[in-house]
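Note to self: the last two entries modelled the partners one at a time, which told us nothing about the interface. This time every component goes in together.
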Amino acid sequence: MTTETSISGETLTSEVIKSGVSSHRMTVGALMLLVGAVLIFAVGFAQGAGGFLHNAAHDTRHAVTFPCH
Amino acid sequence: MISKAFLTVLLTGLIAGILVTGAQMLRVTPLILQAETYEMGEVAVPHTHSNSGITHEHKLNGVALDAHLKIKDLHGDQNEAYVESGQSWAPADGTERTFYTFVSNVVTGVAFSFLLVAVYLMRGKPVNMKSGLLWGAAGFVVFSGSTAFGLPPELPGMTAAALESRQVWWIGTVIATAAGIGLLTESKNLLPKIIAAVLIAVPHIIGAPHPHLFESNVPAELSAQFAVASLLTSAFFWLTLGAVSGLLFQKLVLEPSESLVTASA
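The predicted structure of the combined assembly is written out below.
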């Protein structure tokens, strides 16, 4: 009896750890999606002060097929 | 794990940014520079007519400017044309411009790798160079393929519909295509796959915004060459991003944790 209890206890712990790791992974993944999207906006769409961002990233925008002008 | 994932993103962006800057210099940049000679604002052409002695100037650009500059006999006293300036800051042509392009290529590379590594993390499945290459191909389809199907890659000086409406269509197409591809790869049932097909098709059924009248100073052949060159360059960019991110993610993020599992077991 004691052995059974300890086995089920172990499975539970490892499941808790697994789900903890996977939700952590999802959070980091979602944050990375967000940061990536913000960076893409900065490089591809933002005009910046006096068109600074537009002119600096101009050739990249044309090369990576962003709508530019 | 987070720091290793970040390292993967930064290294991938740097490597792909360096490589794509080289690739861009082969065809894309020369074509942009050539097209810009057609885009340059208006050029004032002052001259005196020899018959009447009247001096005046025309403001012209593109084809009309070329034609006008050729009429030597009518414009006996043709003065040199000058370009009206008044543009905001832009990097000077040459090294400075290449440097800014390099920096923005690296930033774009880092931005795209963030998305790829986010996909790897959220799927939680094994990744290597081969599967990374496939995800890179998916990135190309989402960001360049589907968008270029409606809005061909633009050269400076080409006529196009209002920028804002094109940007809205572009962003909508990217989101719909990405969601569609996500549903296609992650679902096993028929219904989500049908929804995926609809999502991918809808932006093109709605249609991209286009100008009512196509009037461009840029020769059509130049635009055609540019469309091919920029699509191939961004395909190269995405395949590099996919392969490098897949390889680094496998070596830096996945394998250390695997060895940790075997060590603890």
